[in-house]
Amino acid sequence: MTDTKTFIKSWIFLFVLTFSLNLAAHDISSEQAHHESEKFVPGSFIMDHIADAYEWHIVTIGETHISIPLPVILYSKTSGLHVFMSNKFHHGHEMYDGFMIARDGEHEKKIVEVINGEQIKPIDLSISKNVVSLFVSVLIMLWIFFSIAKRYSKNPKSAPKGLQSMLEPIIIFVRDDVAKASIGEKRYMQFTPFLLTIFFFIFINNLMGLIPIFPFGANLTGNIAITMVLALFTFVITTFIGNKAYWTHIFNAPGVPWWLKFPIPLMPLVEVMGVFIKPFVLMVRLFANITAGHIIALGFYSLIFIFGEINATAGYGVSVVSVAFTIFMMMLELLVAFIQAYVFTLLSALYFGMAIEEHH
Amino acid sequence: MDLITPGIGLVFWMFLTFLTVLFLLKKFAWKPILNSLKEREDSIENALKAADDARAQMEQLQSDNEKILAKAREERDSLLKEARETQELIISESKAKAKEEADKLIKAAQISIENEKNAAVESMKIQIVSLSVEIAEKILRKQLEDAKAQNELISELVKDIKLN
Question: CA 20 to 30 Å from A5, out of A245, A306, A329, B16?
Fold first, then answer.
């Protein structure tokens, strides 16, 4: 009980803090908004929503943008380390300390350092919108699993309760139907913690991406950097645990005619490519599925504004259809959120299973 | 292009965060959770097994009970049978004994009756003899009232007496 209370309190504190920071930030932005073009561009509207950002835009009321400024951390080869809040850019309209957010060109929407009129990209370790979302998701994960772990260790033999009974079937599903089924009875427990972590990381972030209210709604699992790191973990583990049989199968596959290996090592080449393609496909599948879901939902919303620009009545008319379709898409995305987490975990487990399988 | 180019910052933070979370969850969440799940599953399995054992034991006991009952019933039956046999034996024995006793009594009675009869006959015989003697006396007396008859008789009797 006390844990939950402290948790809620700390959240309220966080909200108050961020909003007070933000109030200072947005008064200038309201003037700036006047100069922006009023025309609705669905492409950039959608891309703005699914891409990473240096500030967390919450809502625009009239001409006022309400957004939370986030810390920018830069390392430039010429001017060293820079740490400041992103509201110094005034929503990307102003330069600060020699840095600016590029409006076009190669580094569009990224921070660049302007040296002698040339835009040079520094090493950018900013706590961007996606990084904040990542931290939030991780805090939620830690809170959920620490609290249920406490109950598990306190009452190991009693029936699950509350959150525990919601998550227990999923944990058992990952353990038995993913880990045990793919890796085998002997060594599955070694990989179960990793598989559970990636499963819940992807699942929780997929779900968080569907909630459009701060601090959720960032397109984290639809970001290629995130899926790349996840796939990298699977790749590294697979490569390190690979036994002799696994590598033999790659470089000198048994049961394959010799002329496929010599003089042109066709089969080994294909197998080595496979080693890299597997995690690559993992990365792309998750990224594409989640991003596509977001794009479609945003596309339906864009229709409202496209028609609204032509005629207000048409806009209202289309909104009914758009909302209906978006609700349908959301339902589908809920399913996809689970399926993609499951597929990523299952394939990782299968790769682990292949790497440690004993051939006779 | 922005969409499919991984940002170095996000890769960095993700790598760091994910590694930390993996470590923390593995150590403080998955270990106790998986351990207690295993423990609970084991205890449930053991409980089920124990229940099965108990049921088997119960069945064993029940069949034992039935066996004991059947045995008891058998014993009772045999006891009853034996008792009946003994009873019959006793009855027949006592019957035989009674008969024997009765026979003995009858025989004794018969003997005594015979004795009585013999005694009666004896006494009757004695009485008849004395009566006949008396009658004969009376007759003789009557016949020998006159002297002639007396003499005749005496002579006859004397004739009969042979002096040797």
Answer: B16
Q: Is residue A166 located within the same domain as residue A302?
A: yes
- Show which of A124, A143, A160 is a domain's final residue: A124
Residue of B nearest to A72 (CA): B9
- At A26, the pLDDT band (50, 70, 90 cuts) reads very low
B7, closest residue in chain A (CA to CA): A225
Domain limits at A14? Answer: 2-66
B46 has a chain A CB within 8 A of its CB: no
- Sorted by sequence, the CB contacts under 8 Å of residue B134 that are 6+ apart come out as none
pTM metric for this prediction: 0.74
Query: Does a structural domain hold residue B2?
Result: no
pLDDT one-digit tens code per residue, A89-129: 887 788 888 888 887 777 778 888 888 878 888 888 889 89
- Gap between the Cα atoms of A138 and A301, Å rounded: 30
Q: Find which of A157, A229, A283 to mutate to test the B interface (most B CBs within 10 Å of its CB).
A: A229
ipTM of the prediction greater than 0.85, yes or no:
no
**Mean pLDDT, range A246-257, rounded to an integer:** 84
Residue with tokens 């961020």: A18
Contact A208, A217 (CB under 8 A): yes
Asked if A153 lies within 8 A of B32 by C-beta distance, the reply is yes
Q: Which residues of B fall within a CB distance of 8 Å from A233?
A: 18, 22
Between the alpha carbon of residue A81 and those of residues A75, A97, A225, A250, the distances in Å are: 4, 11, 23, 45
* Tokens linked to A237: 């583990």
Does the pLDDT at position A27 exceed 60?
Answer: no
pLDDT top residue among A346 and B161: A346
Residues of chain B contacting A287 with CB distance shorter than 8 Å: 4
Query: Are A29 and A64 within 8 A, CB to CB?
Result: yes
Does residue B7 sit at the A interface (CB-CB below 8 Å)? Answer: yes
Interchain contact B13–A (C-beta under 8 A): yes
